[in-house]
Fold:
Amino acid sequence: MHSILEDILKYKKDYVKQLKSSFVRDLSMERSHKKSRFFEALSQPGLSLISEIKKASPSKGLINPDFNPLDLAHHFEKGGSSAFSILTDEPFFQGKNDYLMSVNKVSSMPILRKDFILDPIQVEESYHIGADAILIILAILDVDQAQELIDKAYELGMDVLIEIHSEEDVACLRKLSDVRIIGVNNRDLHSFDVDINRSLHIKETIYEEFPGCLFVAESGYHSVQQLDGLSEYQFDAVLIGEGLIKEPSLLDYFK
Structure:
């Protein structure tokens, strides 16, 4: 069955080809902070919040008609967020690199670039636009590809949120070295359906295998009761996007 994911990956492969022909490498570029603060921000006691700055999605269409990344960043930062996740995919999520760059200029909060990263050139691009961390989705990579992206990010001083969705992803995760942050996503990548128990089950399965790692729960959180459940399962952080738009009072949980 044809899926949205197949369309996204086809586009990203073309994007990588274009980027390789146009990207100007300048890894000596000065950055306001040499070392990522993303891991540190999520390491604080209690459940940390990664607030997602997201305009749209393939499954829901336009999520926030009044979308303004700077206003959202200011609101989320005041609300107790520990970090931002910013969508930069344009055709499918209506994101832009400019959104990340503009937020980075006005906020000192660490930023995760959320995109479909397939090639080290995209890691370099992430560094240049100001990301503190990148998302790596194991379901769309083999072990060698994932390790190459992780190593490149660490070389540039960025953190990596390694995202898993399934037992197959867990098998891949076990073969990687220097894993520091694991994101467990409740969303099925092919159907985009959400099962809120997915993250709880997978974390319980692998927690003891990755001592010292941070665990982040992703997708589908809309209530205080769900957040309490994550705290009970000792998640270090939760990534929430649409939930903060629909239920603004969720921010009170993190103040």
Summary: The chain has a mean pLDDT of 92. The chain has one domain: 45-254. The two ends are 44 Å apart (CA to CA). The beta strands are 48-53, 56-57, 61-62, 83-87, 111-114, 133-137, 159-164, 181-185, 214-218, 237-240.
